[in-house]
Amino acid sequence: MDDKFMLMIPGPTPVPESVLLAQAKHLIGHRSGEFSEIMAEVTAGLKWLHQTKNDVLMLTASGTGAMEAGIINVLSVGDRVLVGSNGKFGDRWVKVCKAFGLNVDVIEAEWGKPLNPDDFKAKLEADTDKTIKAVLVTHSETSTGVLNDLKTIADHAHAHGEALVLVDAVTSLGACSVPVDGWGLDVVASGSQKGYMIPPGLGFVAMSDRAWQAYETSNIPKFYFDLGPYRKSGAKNTTPFTPPVSLFFALQVALKMMQDEGLDNIFSRHAKLQTATRAAMKGLNLPLFAADEVASPAVTAVMPQGVEAEKIRSIMRKQYDIALAGGQDHLKGQIFRVGHLGFVGNRDILTAVASLEATLAQLGANGFTPGAGLAAAQAVLSA
User: Fold this and answer.
1) CATH code assigned at 30
2) Is 353 helix (H, G, I), strand (E, B) or coil?
3) Do 154 and 195 sit in the same domain of this protein?
């Protein structure tokens, strides 16, 4: 049936109808007073969401572009950096850093396991000459459904005294609390197609005072992603280059929806959806890839036994019009991932779980009781 497609992946995420309709408005000039009013409103909303008093800049880019912008604006060629890698996106930041000539020291953990803050502590404490210029961490590792202990890692960086804290918060911002000022985060990158509930196309970079100090000495070449002009233009509620005006219409509506819901309610909703999804998988005897203690509020990774992950995804897509995400790199074909991020509610979880139960039955999966997953999810959602 047409127009019944349902996204249950960690991005792009479902977009509310009011946000979709906002993009259908006639375009306005991005140098107009009307656009400046929208720019002022969304800038204030972004600061609210990031829990910061400092700059949150908007780029026409993906989350990867936002993180690249953060790196090249506060670091210099040859700088030593610590990069946490326990999944595909941690690996990506290693590649980006190396592409710009940084001296990369990788702190690794097995995919599906969290980064160990003590590993960062040891490296930072051993750096008596203060050669480490930055610590880079992926907060919510989308590829595995693991939430890293960002606060503790940031605390170790602060104890070092020199290292900046750069964060990929692409699937954590809007899903759980990321108090940028409270945790002393220097550069925080995110993307519009996740917790912001709008289509892809906007990247966001939060910058601390310490980050701007580092900007003054950064020597990595930059032009379009030079954040200085964005800051200067942003102070006048405008942009240095042509922005995606329709996405600003969408962002205005989405941020208003989020403010009406309230930060605490947003975070508790995601926590409940996460718990319900994981309870359902356990009820269906489907092994979870990450432990409950380190689970991401944005996505749950599942490693089915006795039935192929890709067959599950195929039937869910073809017969129930529900998209689940697959595994990446060496996990391709071994896991599937259920997104519960952004514009997702109780009905979405129950629908996905019921369809998954029907899919497992069709594939002849053993070891599960029909209805057990739905009952487990409902028990959480009705509590």
Assistant:
1) 3.40.640.10
2) helix
3) yes
Same domain flag for 276 and 245: no
Q: Cβ distance 253 to 246 under 8 Å?
A: no
User: Rounded to an integer, what distance in angstroms lies between the CA atom of residue 35 and that of residue 245?
Assistant: 8
Nearest to 356 by CA among 266, 298, 277, 297: 277
Whether 9 is in a domain gets the answer no
DSSP states along 107-156: EE--TTS---HHHHHHHHHH-TT--EEEEEEESEETTTTEE--HHHHHHH
Compute the C-alpha angle 228/194/59, nearest 5°: 20
b/e map 368-383, b = 16+ CB within 10 Å: beeebbbebbbebbee
Quick one: angle between helices 227-234 and 63-74, nearest 10? 100
Q: pLDDT tens track of the chain, all 383 residues?
A: 678 899 999 999 999 999 999 999 999 999 999 999 999 999 999 999 999 999 999 999 999 999 999 999 999 999 999 999 999 999 999 999 999 999 999 999 999 999 999 999 999 999 999 999 999 999 999 999 999 999 999 999 999 999 999 999 999 999 999 999 999 999 999 999 999 999 999 999 999 999 999 999 999 999 999 999 999 999 999 999 999 999 999 999 999 999 999 999 999 999 999 999 999 999 999 999 999 999 999 999 999 999 999 999 999 999 999 999 999 999 999 999 999 999 999 999 999 999 999 999 999 998 889 999 999 999 999 98
Rounded to an integer, what distance in angstroms lies between the CA atom of residue 315 and that of residue 323?
Answer: 10
Cβ 116 vs Cβ 147: under 8 Å: no
In a domain, 218, yes or no: yes
Q: How many domains does the chain have?
A: 2
* Paired tokens of 207: 């910058």
Name the residue with tokens 């210099």.
76
CATH number where 344 lies: 3.90.1150.10
Answer whether 138's CB lies under 8 Å from 148's CB: yes
CB 117 within 8 A of CB 149: yes
What is each CA distance from 215 to 133, 211, 219, 222, 255, in whole angstroms?
Answer: 12, 6, 9, 11, 29
Q: Is 337 annotated as a binding residue?
A: yes
- Is there a domain that residue 3 lies in? no
**Helix (H/G/I), strand (E/B), else coil: 215:** helix
If asked whether residues 253 and 276 sit together in one domain, one would say no
